[in-house]
Amino acid sequence: MRVVLATHNQHKVDEFQKILGARMPGLDIVRYDGPEPVEDGTTFAENALIKAKAAALHTGLPALADDSGLSVDILGGAPGIFSARWAGHGKGDRANRDLLLDQLADIHDEHREGAFVCTIALVVPERGKAAEAGEFAVEEVASGFWRGMVVREARGEHGFGYDPVFQPAGSALTAAELAPAEKNAVSHRALAFENLLPILSRTLAL
């Protein structure tokens, strides 16, 4: 079974293939080569579905897409869907982290809690004229939440994004101080994959 992943990043395709392919023999995940849609949703789920629908329509294949970010409780869930551009378009990971730390500078530790969130969407196009009209047989989402807190200064050399300032619940280390294999086994993306598997197995068996 071929499934398109709504990304131009081959490394992400390889990651999805490694994780899902190991659990579902015969699953072949391919990279999306079409135009990128405008991600104008207001939630992780909406943006993941926008990307998955675009890939499904362009290819006619079942499509997967993910959207993820950091949600801080005291900021009302921000940076949230704006995590990758919190400091402005093109500013980069360091600027995003520095702005977040500055915004939380006067906040006591007990109020610095939040979670990394990952939502993966699965979309299966309808056949025939329904597909041309943009109708879908399946629209499903699965999410993973990795609870923790924002520390006061960046620590660690692994990972990317907000990893150096996020300390998972129950750990004395930041996500960037964890070994990559250890992080990948417990992260928000790992939890989303676990929640996606039964949906994917049930859907693709139809």
Automatic annotation (TrEMBL):
Task of the protein: Pyrophosphatase that catalyzes the hydrolysis of nucleoside triphosphates to their monophosphate derivatives, with a high preference for the non-canonical purine nucleotides XTP (xanthosine triphosphate), dITP (deoxyinosine triphosphate) and ITP. Seems to function as a house-cleaning enzyme that removes non-canonical purine nucleotides from the nucleotide pool, thus preventing their incorporation into DNA/RNA and avoiding chromosomal lesions.
Reaction catalysis annotation: ITP + H2O = IMP + diphosphate + H(+); XTP + H2O = XMP + diphosphate + H(+); dITP + H2O = dIMP + diphosphate + H(+)
Binding site for Mg(2+): D67
Subunit structure, as described in the record: Homodimer.
Cofactor note: Binds 1 Mg(2+) ion per subunit.
Keywords: Hydrolase, Magnesium, Metal-binding, Nucleotide metabolism, Nucleotide-binding
Annotated family: Belongs to the HAM1 NTPase family.
Gene it is expressed from: rdgB
Residues that bind substrate: T7, H8, N9, Q10, H11, K12, S68, F160, G161, Y162, D163, K183, H188, R189
Descriptive protein name: dITP/XTP pyrophosphatase
